[in-house]
Design goal:
alpha/beta; disordered C terminus; 25% strand; 8-stranded mixed sheet; binds zinc ion; 25 strands; elongated; 10-stranded mixed sheet
Length: 550
Amino acid sequence: MMDAVNEPGVREVVFMTSAQIGKTEILNNILGYFVHQDPSPILFIQPTLEMAEAWSKDRLAPMIRDSDALTELFKDPKSRNSDNTLLHKKFNGGHLTMAGANSPSSLASRPIRIVLLDEEDRYPTSAGSEGDPGSLAQKRTTTFWNRLLVSASTPTIEGESKIEARFQQSDQRLFFVPCPECGAFQTLRWAQVKFDRNKPDAAHYECEHCAAVLQDSDKPWMLAKGEWRAQAEFAGVAGFHISELYSPWVRWGEMVENFFKAKRLPETLKVWVNTSLGETWKEATEGVDHTGLLSRKENWGRIVPVGVVVITAGVDVQDDRLEAEIVGWGVGQESWSLQYHVLHGDPAQAKLWEDLDRVLRQPFQRSDGVSLTVGCACIDTGGHYTQKVYEYCKAREHDRVFAIKGASQIGRPLVSRFSRTNKLRVKLFTLGTDTAKQMIYARLKIHQPGAGYCHFPAEYPEDYFRQLTSERVKTKFVNGHPTRHWVLAKGQRNEALDCRVYALAALYILNPNLDALVQEMERERITKQKPEPATPASDGWMGFDDWNFN
Ligand SMILES: [Zn+2]
């Protein structure tokens, strides 16, 4: 891999690799080679300035100290002057500058012949406001006919990965190794690692040609006989991809063990795919397409379907209105969206809250005569009217009308135990909104009525479904760690989704035994001599006309 820097016509070398493969040593060796054999102005870039300083102290200094050739070439490492600082060192015939990709000033200035980029996928998208750090550095090499850029990184997310983009422009070399049994060459792939979950240590590699069982002990022989083969046309860029499957320091069984540890959560699995397989993570689009939901609208009129045994409500507070969804729940948390209200008015005024009272206190009747009311309601306190919500809920705690606030951390339970630390000592529940949205979106993908299925009435306009499906999961890197974020489509409102989150939370606070309730209501129905004639649910139903289409 290191020899590629001397191949004729090569102006860029790309290493897209897993961890545990000696990637940083490769860059260090290439640096040492140029200092010794082909002295030039060299720029070595780390993701941050702090990492550049640490690399200078912990990796470069020992390398210079331990190599007689390098000790000779660098100016006295003990002396501190402009020729020898932590981030800039002169040597015979050239100089080495170390920089952080987050610091535009350290990337600008003098011309450079050799640019080395370490962990490029961890670089910020832009160095200050100057643009892509890798491209900025590359620009400084343009005056050299024999310029060279070397980038080595573990990849991140498909479509966003810089190292993957570089690899795709390269001649895409993969390492082919022969099978000790049949001699046929192949690249090592995760799919060929065979294992028993309970005995990860017994994992082996299965030859894709002859199905021979290959052991870790076969690896050294296979690696020694292996060769790089390009998979694409060469156009000045030599690219190498290699994974932990080849690592002489990691057993296949260890990889299986780590895989099962990582597999529990999408975010840890992503890290495993990046660092062990050296592959980009294909982001599952956890969004839902709203047009598919439109076709499942049902016309059950204003009478509550018989499957509903519990009713909850979720209320979102905006500066000029309240929005509220009334949701009916049945066995397996199958749900029916019974009503959606947009109550216009000023949340600072009592009038609007009286309107909400009418919505939350209305009686419901099922087509078989069973009567129901809203069993629990959750109202968001996150807007500008926190105090008003507290006051409203304080007077209605006995009716199970609760104040809630959202928390977006990953893995947070849907509903945590309430606190009363606010001024009015109102019960305040914290909701895990990431958890709730994942649950709701997973359920919207269920296509058959039954457990988890979501029913919607014919009256709801398209905008309701657009709001319900307005968010997507994106992975952002926070301090180098992939983190899930819910991102709202541009210009899109999401009150309908928020209301559903709160109504679902209300069900979990109420925590009813849905199966037992079904049986109870069945008994109630049978003992009733004559079902009451069905009447419309209430005059509080705002329905279709009230929708704000803007
Ligand atoms: Zn074989």
